[in-house]
Amino acid sequence: MSYVPLLKEMHRSDTSLLSKLAQEFTTARPFPHLVIDGMFSHALLNEALQAFNLDHVNNINVFQNQLQSKRSTSTKSVMPAAIQQYFDIVNSAPFLRLLTRLTGITNLLPDPYFYGGGMHEVAGEGHFQVHTDFRHHPHTYLENRLVLLTYLNHDWKPEYGGLLELWQKNPPQPVRKIVPRFGRSVLMLQSPDSWHGHPQATQAGHVRRTLITYFYTAPKIKTSRAAQNTTYLSNNRQSTMQIAEIFIRNIMPHFIIDTARWVRHRKHKQNFK
């Protein structure tokens, strides 16, 4: 995808850049994370910024209390087309494979409803005190594993406030502060130790805009081997060969079926060499 230059690295023989980023993610303090400038093309993000207007979006969440002051979209919001394009990209299979390469977390799943994510805007001395995010999606019950933030703030300076702070718990203090500059993406592991926020209020007259996406994995549960296969129903409209194959599938040990599939797949690949 031309909108995500880093995806090209997935198809190159030299993947040293991806290995370097993966190492940075694993060893980052105070918890695994990555800060990447230019992860997405400026063309994509400029279009998203032009369309970023929460006053024109339905079902807006407004958080106004002592711990946070911001606005965001909800699971019922209809995103502007240019912003939906960004989310379509980050929720796609190629992008999920890239995240697996960077973090080592396999079988990642997106949330097309953007619970807790979507468009976030902080203005008028808004803030978000240091916190950890929800551990499980309240509707799908999937486990929250990663969050990706992409900033849309041109020429943002540290003195404007609103810096993303990554904290350690003991003793409680910030370990890293990240300026939310335009085109900067932050990928963070989600865990009970992933303390973060922007407790320093944004300066009056400046608006801090962010696109946020969460990624999940299914809870680990044990299922029978039979439950992982397609099950066929015999009936009088089938041929004798079809009924025989269904019978064989039902009684034959699964390791034999898997071996036969592997041999067939290998033979198919050799025929196309």
User: Structural class per helix/strand content?
Assistant: alpha+beta
Q: Please give the order of strands in the largest beta sheet.
A: 1-9-6-11-4-3-2
CATH architecture of the largest domain: Sandwich
Name of the CATH homologous superfamily of the largest domain: q2cbj1_9rhob like domain
| Proportion of residues in β-strands | 15-25%
How many strand units?
A: 11
How far apart, in Å, are the first and last alpha carbons? 28 Å
| Low-confidence runs | none
Shape annotation: elongated
State the assembly state of the protein chains.
single chain
CATH class type of the largest domain: Mainly Beta
Order of helices and strands: HEHEEHHEEEEEEEEHH
Number of helices: 6
In helices, the fraction of residues equals 25-40%
Number of domains: 2
Cα-atom radius of gyration: 23 Å
CATH topology of the largest domain: Jelly Rolls
